Amino acid sequence: MNEQTNPQESEQVEQAVQSESAEDVMSEAADGSADPVDWEQKVAELEDRLIRSHAELANYRRRSSNEIDQIRKYEGLSLVRDLLPALDNLKRATAAAENASSVADLKTGVEMVLQQMLETLTRHHIEAIPAEGEPFDPNQHEAVQQIPSDKIEAMHVLQDLETGYRMYDRIVRPAKVIVSTGPAQ
């Protein structure tokens, strides 16, 4: 049995078995000249083809299931590969912090690593959820506190404590925010 049969081939085999058997049986039954031995041989051939078709279909389903399992198992692999250089740069920045002559140089290095990580997330369709100054949306924001504010109107985000992220239309992590209750009374 061919392990590399694709779905089109399986479908073609099934169609051939169905169409050939129907055409053969109809033509031979119509003229009434079929020998009983021929009928038995034809039935045996059709049964064999049917068994083979079912076996090919079962093999195809098993292979597809295995492929889906492998895809699910390793779906994050490309993201991890893209994040590894940023991790390496963060380690270098940590090592350089021990010998850094100025905090400004260290800060610049860490900012570069942060930018590299954000670009990696963007390449993988992960974007930050805007929060500060935006209307509070419980689908995207998690309110951890409410504070009165004269500058920000009620039910708007006053401060973003932890950035939220979304991938396409799904929330990876909601933004943890402080929400304004409006002017203090």
What can you tell me about this protein's structure?
- The protein is α+β, with helices and mostly antiparallel strands and 185 residues long.
- It has three domains: 7-73; 77-123; 127-180, Head domain of nucleotide exchange factor GrpE (Nucleotide Exchange Factor Grpe, Chain A, domain 2, Roll).
- Helix content is 58%, strand content 16%.
- It has helices spanning 7-31, 36-73, 77-99, 103-123; strands spanning 126-128, 141-147, 157-162, 165-167, 170-173, 175-180.
- The strands form two sheets. It has a three-stranded antiparallel sheet with strand order 1-4-5. Strands 2-6-3 form a three-stranded mixed sheet, with no helix packed on it.
- Strand 4 (165-167) and strand 5 form a beta hairpin.
- Helix 1 packs antiparallel against helix 2 (36-73) and helix 3 runs antiparallel to helix 4.
- The longest helix is centred in the first third of the chain and has 38 residues, at 36-73.
- The relative contact order is 0.08.
Brief account:
The chain is an alpha+beta fold and 185 residues long. It has helices spanning 7-31, 36-73, 77-99, 103-123; strands at residues 126-128, 141-147, 157-162, 165-167, 170-173, 175-180. The chain starts with 6 loop residues before the first helix and ends in a 5-residue tail after the last strand.
